[in-house]
Specification:
This protein is an alpha/beta fold and 232 residues long. The chain contains ten helices and eight strands. Bound molecules: 2-phosphoglycolic acid.
Length: 232
């Protein structure tokens, strides 16, 4: 399988999301590549509607571990499913950095979403400091320690120093990290961190890289479609 997922982060309200998804429907996308977009919560319904009847999946960017309850600001898996959302990103490094999400919280979210039948892209990755200290493998091992293989689970390796910085891990670095993780948990793995049309083909040619989680370059339809084509 090859999966290209666009993480829109806090970009595109409902109006822009609808326009993007209608343009993506009309774009030249290759066969054999699974394509997913992950808009902000408020734009999910619009995206689901605009992509109805296509193979393009709509994912959320986060999801709570309970079905319902006193958890201000959160949404649950059944709520997302009611909207027609297919899956969710969990544990993105920005959630870990700015919202205090720990491995334990991420694990709870992952388990809950999988239990409810949502597809999950669980994000892991080391910071620049951890890589400089030679702790990359130790960090990756810790981050996947409590995850178990599941047919609906995909892991995204996103070195934190490569996200939004224009610094991409070399294909060899990404391949090495993916091999380490696949030895621990055998699930499909995406690479994320400054993926662009220019570097996508080389990264995706690595045997342990099964797709990409794309941030900045997923916000423009032509650029995102070009990455999808580079993956085929
Ligand atoms: P980037 O973001 O492609 O803008 O580096 C990737 C991500 O955060 O998922």
């Amino acid at each position: 399988m090859t999966l290209i997922a666009g993480n829109w982060k806090m970009f595109k309200g409902p109006g822009e999301a609808g326009a993007f998804c209608r343009a993506l429907r009309a774009a030249d996308l290759p066969d054999g590549v699974d394509v997913v977009v992950a808009p902000p919560f408020v734009s999910l319904a619009e995206a689901v509607q605009a992509l109805a009847g296509t193979e393009i999946g709509v994912f959320a960017q986060n999801c709570h571990w309970e079905e319902e309850g006193a958890f201000t600001g959160e949404v649950s898996a059944p709520m997302l499913q009611e909207l027609g959302v297919y899956g969710t990103i969990v544990g993105h490094s920005e959630r870990r950095q700015w919202f205090g999400e720990t491995d334990a919280i991420v694990t709870r979210r992952v388990h809950h979403c999988l239990e409810f039948g949502l597809h999950v892209i669980a994000c892991i990755g080391e910071t620049a400091e951890e890589r400089d200290k030679g702790a990359t493998h130790q960090v990756l091992r810790r981050q996947v320690a409590s995850l178990e293989p599941d047919p609906n689970l995909v892991i995204a390796y996103e070195p934190v120093w490569a996200i939004g910085t224009g610094k991409t891990a070399t294909p060899a670095m990404a391949q090495e990290a993916h091999e380490t993780i696949k030895d621990l948990i055998d699930v499909p793995m995406l690479y994320g961190g400054s993926v662009k049309p220019e570097n996508a083909a080389e990264l995706l040619a690595q045997p342990a890289i099964d797709g990409a989680l794309v941030g900045g370059a997923s916000l423009d339809v032509d650029t995102f479609a070009a990455i999808c084509r580079a993956a085929s």
